[in-house]
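=== RUN LOG ===
request id: a7f3
mode: sequence -> structure
chains: 1
length: 108
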Amino acid sequence: MGLTIESISHPSHHLISLSGEIDTKTATSLMEALAELELASLLELRIDMGAVAFVSSAGLRALLFAKQKMPYESRLVVIGANTSITEVITKTGLSDAMMLVADVSLLN
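=== RESULT ===
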C-alpha cells in the first residue's frame, strides 16, 4: 500500500491529509511535502491521519522534522490517528511536541 498526500493552505493553518501507510518507502514523500512548506513561519500545521493504517519510525521522524522546523509557539496537530498510532506517539514522548485530537471539531 502506498501513501496519498493532499496539501491545502488555509488562512489560519495548513492541512496535510494522508491516506495509506507511512513506512520507510513512503516517508520520503511525506518529508518532501513537509519540506515544501514554509515551516519556519507556520503557526499551525494539521495532519489528518484518519485514513493512515500504519506509521513506522521513519514516519514519526517526518513529523518530528516538521515540528522542529516550526516556531516554538506553533502547533502541530495530528487528527484522527488510530489507536496504535496514538499509542506509539505517546509512548515515544512525541505527544509532548504535538497535539493529538480524534476529530477536527475538537479544535478551537
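=== NOTES ===
The longest helix spans residues 57-69.
Residues 3-106 form a domain with the Transcription Regulator spoIIAA fold (CATH 3.30.750.24).
=== END ===
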